[in-house]
Specification:
With 458 residues, the chain is an alpha/beta fold. The chain contains 15 helices and 15 strands. Helices cover 37% and strands 21% of the residues. Helix 12 crosses helix 13. Bound molecules: zinc ion (2 copies).
């Protein structure tokens, strides 16, 4: 289950044996390939390849090398290509001040124009950045959006990666991470949050060891994934699963997410929590909920930041079908030492989680993210409460698990339910951490006139 998030299958390097290369990848366990357009002709070809192969998706865009050729007429044409069902992103676009095949000012202009088009079409972006870190960062910051997309072939340091992750991007690593002298890249690949990590080949270029120097192809994604799994000291299967889940922005929307939003509900709550729904109803703002499959992985950075990133990821996941609405994402993490206790899959797992938490102080952290109708990130924060559970007997835990309440709850308990009896002490407000900031945000919006409440029922 490996996904190559960036390949150039349209290139002439594959003309002689393209179908063989594609078949080899599929047989070798590659479950999805995103093939990237770099100009009009290449984007057209990428779509053709995607149409012929179920597991291949395409993107359209003008690479910074070709920025000087991206005239408005061609961009209009690309926009029509983008409506093809197999097109999942706009790109690659970006800045390349290393080769400078197009003048820098034209690259900046083409990038800005294409970022705007991607937002207009509600598509994620694939960004190329070579020797242009500072210019790219300031250009992206200037637009102040919650971005969806990928910084591909990442070549900066950890701090740059985190700055881009804060803006909403995933960071994708190619085969260069396997090279002996790639210390910076390896450090970054081992430290960034797993939820924002992707792997790619960028084939036919950047072939990983042990095939460095030969033509690259999607099958070789496994060497890059293996190296990163080794750097992060985790099983390859786990890394493969996580990076596959992370390509969500590069997948067509799920069936249940394609329904159009009712005009009379300007707010979308990207969270499945019934408690949040219940509290939000008290604000008298019409809203609807949409859920997404954002998974809580292992803690790979500061827990507060992690909670915030998860909330942002939930908001991002529904932007595609809810652009034009206010979106409120929220996610709660239960953290014991450095371990994230997610939602238990079954009663046995709930039992062992509660056993771990018994008698211990731990953190309940909720991240919030509010996105404006123009996709700008309006607010993002995380709050924490320390909770200590009583020392519980086996019988008490079994009795609580039998109530059914622990299933589907982070950390296997709900304080505002039967679970209240588990608690010995709380530092801070539990209600506050789980729900209240959400309503505070919405009330603040009402105060500015951005959202209108409905009248109280008579
Ligand atoms: Zn590139
Ligand atoms: Zn590329």
């Amino acid at each position: 289950m490996l996904i190559d998030s960036h390949a150039h299958l349209d290139m002439e390097d594959f003309d002689a044996d393209r179908d063989v290369v594609i078949k080899r990848a599929l047989q070798g366990g590659v479950t999805r390939i995103v093939t990237i357009g770099i100009d009009l002709a290449s984007s057209r070809k990428a779509i053709e390849i995607a149409k012929k192969n179920e597991f291949i998706y395409a993107t359209v865009g003008y690479h910074p090398h070709n920025a000087s050729k991206a005239d408005p007429r061609d961009l209009e044409k690309l926009k029509t290509f983008a409506s093809e069902p197999k097109v999942v992103a706009w790109g690659e676009i970006g800045l390349d001040f290393f080769r400078r095949h197009s003048p820098p000012d034209m690259q900046v202009q083409a990038l800005e124009r294409q970022l705007d088009i991607a937002f207009e079409l509600d598509l994620p972006v694939i960004i190329h950045d070579r020797d242009a870190h500072r210019d790219l960062l300031s250009l992206l910051k200037k637009k102040n959006r919650l971005y969806r997309g990928v910084i591909h072939c990442f070549s900066g340091n950890y701090d740059l990666a985190m700055a881009l992750i804060e803006m909403g991007f995933c960071i994708s690593f190619p085969g260069t991470v396997t090279y002996k002298n790639a210390i910076d890249t390896q450090t970054t690949a081992s430290r960034i949050p797993l939820e924002r990590l992707l792997v790619e080949t960028d084939c036919p270029y950047l072939t990983p060891a042990p095939f460095r120097g030969k033509r690259n192809e999607p099958l070789y994604i496994k060497y890059t994934a293996e190296k990163i799994a080794q750097l992060r000291q985790m099983p390859l299967e786990e890394l493969a699963e996580a990076t596959s889940a992370n390509t969500m922005p590069l997948q067509p929307p799920e069936q249940d997410m394609t329904r159009p939003i009712a005009k009379d509900s300007p707010l979308v709550l990207a969270s499945a929590s019934p408690r949040r729904k219940q509290l939000l109803r008290q604000t008298r703002i019409p809203f609807r909920t949409m859920t997404s499959r954002v998974r809580e992985g292992t803690l790979a950075c500061d827990p507060l930041l992690n909670a915030r990133l998860l909330a942002e990821a939930k908001a991002q996941a529904v932007i595609r079908t809810s652009g034009g609405n206010w979106i409120l994402g929220a996610d709660t993490l239960v953290v014991l030492d450095r371990e994230v206790l997610g939602k238990p899959a079954d009663e046995n797992e709930a039992f062992s989680m509660l056993r771990k938490l018994s008698g211990k102080e731990h953190s309940v952290i909720t991240g919030f993210c509010l996105v404006a109708p123009d996709s700008k990130k309006a607010h993002s924060e995380a709050v924490v409460t320390r909770v200590t559970l009583k020392a519980l007997t086996k019988t008490e835990i079994l009795g609580y698990v039998a109530t059914g309440e622990p299933l589907g709850k982070a950390g296997s308990y709900a304080i505002q339910g039967i679970g209240a009896f588990l608690v010995k002490g709380i530092t801070g407000s539990y209600t506050n951490v789980v729900c209240l900031p959400l309503c505070a945000l919405v009330n603040a919006l009402v105060a500015t006139g951005a959202l209108k409440t409905f009248p109280i029922d008579s």
